[in-house]
Amino acid sequence: MIFIAGIFVITNEKIVNLIFGIFSKRSEFKENYIKTIKQITGNKKSYFFSVSALTLGYYLLNLLVYWIVIKSLNPALNSLLTFSLPIVVVLGNFPISISGFGVREFVSVTIFKLLNESSAYGFSCSIVLYFLTTLLPAIFGFILTLRKKP
Question: For the CA atoms of the chain, what is the radius of gyration?
């Protein structure tokens, strides 16, 4: 709901005028912002909602994959671990490592431990999920790029 409200706020001219007025920004900045938003969206706010729906679908699919990985490692693992994925993703994006390596695994191990599961499953789950959702598609895309003829 906050995300939808945010989209409404950044695309509504009256609210943008109010915000720029509160922060005492020059009118040229406001006009440039409004013009840029109109260029990006083509004056169709539905684009933001379409992109948001696709993103939500992507993360729901990732939750399903995460659940399948958890259950394939050990069917007795707590299904609530699936809902730890957003935490793992957010904390894994801190720019303190290369592509989140180590941070994502640490967070996953910690969450599994907090929910009284083996930390080895947390590490394995993180590595398998990275392979399935990031590395494998990247390799496939790289191969397709090599095959493309100029």
Answer: 21
Selection from 133, 136, 137 nearest residue 66 by Cα: 133
In the structure encoding, which two tokens stand for residue 26, read together? 């020059």
Interval 101-117: pLDDT, tens: 788 888 899 999 998 89
Q: What is the 3-state secondary structure (H, E, C) of the chain?
A: CHHHHHHHHHHCHHHHHHHHHHCCCCHHHHHHHHHHHHHHHCCCCHHHHHHHHHHHHHHHHHHHHHHHHHHHHCCCCCHHHHHHHHHHHHHHCCCCCCCCCCHHHHHHHHHHHHCCCCHHHHHHHHHHHHHHHHHHHHHHHHHHHHHCCC
* Confidence check: pLDDT of 64 > 90: yes
Question: Does pTM surpass 0.70?
Answer: no
Percent of the chain residues past pLDDT 90, beyond the cut: 17
